[in-house]
Specification:
By secondary structure, the chain is mainly beta. The protein folds into 2 domains: 178 residues, Jelly Rolls; 225 residues, no CATH class. Helices cover 10% and strands 38% of the residues. The chain contains 5 helices and 26 strands. Strands 3, 4, 7, 8, 9, 13, 14 and 17 form an 8-stranded antiparallel beta sheet that branches. Strand 10 and strand 11 form a beta hairpin. It starts with 14 loop residues before the first strand and ends with a strand.
């Protein structure tokens, strides 16, 4: 309210609200950094607009302590089973989907100190350790026969966990070889500490695709796992003499991990619209945004600058006229082009509007409004609204400087959410004209 008493009543706070024609397009996102993600992902999603998208993850497992001794002196070790366990934290898509899950041994390892990009492939040591069909059931309770003080064991009920045998029971010899390799590890060498174990076993890559022979897979299914969960890793069950034991090799906070994404747009409407510009193609009604380093909507900052200057009644923004317009508040709203979710895949809960550098890379540091409380970007009532007051003030003072804008998803490495946006965003500006 500072200074309002100095302004003439008839010039105070005019407002413009209009849908504006911005030159925009859908472009491929860069391969983004995917190491140590907030959620580990595996699965596959498909729809006619975005085509087919898949996610998988690779990770290190580490012993839960150092100098582990697998057996008592002079005891005979006998393999019981090797179990891959993954804690499940949620899903996207259709739970009627049948997934084909494959687990692989990797080499080299996934280091927690290295940078990995979302489309970089994972190198494996050979054929899969195991392959399994899987149907997700929320809250499913599984009875697990765990070792106890006696040889009989005890039954423990667990839920929210995917478990898969890797010890060759399904005729995959790679799994049997791994189980025996881990069982034969020596406490003075392989199990001495984390560094020694990583040299011994590099880690795992887990992928899941829609089963090609399933009758009804719908839109597919993407499973999410919390990387800090305590039940993701390998459980080696064995006997030392007459005693049944378990060795835990787990994904730990110090373990390396990364997500891997693949996209196939060949049969999608996105492929037809990719790189088409709304400024030259009046039939282009939607643009696309997809997480997982898929695609993003690109807007010309120069076209936004021209809209502000040429909008009726705002020509006096031009410095040559001697008049000035002070922008007090500005929002840019994008409308969801689809009234319902794509299949059973909800649109992103939040999007971000950020400038791009000359190479088309997202530059959040160039958006002065980003960390203000009014910035927003959340999905409400079918729209995403961005507070861009400081950005527009800077744009009108300095010009576009070649930095276009991009609409990108929040948490791009933790999901595969997608949304189609109408190509006419709504621009709302509250300003004061100063003669």
């Amino acid at each position: 309210m500072l200074g309002l008493d100095l302004l003439p009543e008839n010039n105070r706070f005019p407002t413009i609200t209009d849908s504006v024609e911005l030159v925009g397009s859908t472009v491929m996102e860069d391969s983004l950094q995917s190491q140590l993600p907030s959620a580990l992902l595996m699965g596959e999603l498909t729809d006619p607009y975005f085509g087919k998208s898949s996610a998988s993850f690779a990770f290190q497992v580490l012993p839960t302590s150092e100098n582990i001794r697998l057996s008592d002196p002079d005891s005979t070790l006998t393999l019981d089973s090797l179990i891959l366990s993954i804690s499940l934290a949620g899903y996207q898509g259709d739970t009627n989907t049948t997934l084909l899950v494959r687990a692989h041994e990797i080499s080299p390892t996934v280091s927690s100190s290295k940078v990995y990009y979302s489309r970089d492939p994972v190198r494996t040591t050979g054929t899969p350790l195991a392959v399994r069909n899987f149907r997700y059931r929320s809250g499913l309770v599984q009875p697990i026969n765990e070792p106890a003080d006696t040889s009989a064991g005890t039954v423990v009920n667990v839920s929210g966990v995917f478990r898969m045998r890797l010890d060759g029971q399904d005729a995959n010899t790679e799994g049997s070889n791994l189980a025996n390799k881990l069982l034969n590890g020596r406490d003075s060498v392989e199990y001495r500490n984390a560094d020694a174990f990583i040299q011994f076993f590099k880690g795992l890559w887990v992928e899941a695709i829609m089963h090609p022979d399933a009758i009804n897979n719908g839109t597919g299914l993407l499973l999410q796992s919390n990387p800090l969960a305590t039940k993701t890793g390998l459980y080696l069950y064995y006997r030392s003499g007459s005693k049944r034991r378990r060795l835990d090799l787990m994904l730990r906070p110090v373990s390396g991990s990364r997500n891997v994404f693949r996209f196939d747009y060949a049969e999608s409407t996105l492929m037809k619209d990719l790189h088409q510009h709304s400024g030259s193609d009046s039939s282009l009604k939607v643009s696309y945004v997809q997480a997982g380093s898929g695609v993003k909507t690109r807007l010309s900052s120069d076209s936004l600058y021209r809209v502000l200057r040429n909008r009726s009644g705002m020509d006096s923004i031009s410095p040559a006229t001697g008049n000035r317009w002070v922008i007090h508040q500005a929002t840019l709203e994008f409308e969801n082009a689809d009234t319902t979710a794509l299949g059973k895949i909800a649109p992103p809960a939040q999007l971000f509007l950020v400038p791009l550098d000359s190479q088309g890379r997202n530059m959040a540091s160039l958006m002065p409004d980003l960390f203000e409380s009014y910035y927003d970007g959340y999905f409400r009532n079918g729209r995403y609204k961005f507070g861009v007051t400081r950005y527009l003030q800077k744009l009108m003072a300095e010009g576009p400087k070649g930095y276009d804008l991009a609409v990108i998803p929040g948490n791009p490495m933790g999901n595969l959410a997608r949304v189609r946006l109408k190509t006419k965003p709504r621009l709302r500006i509250t300003y004061t004209r100063i003669p």
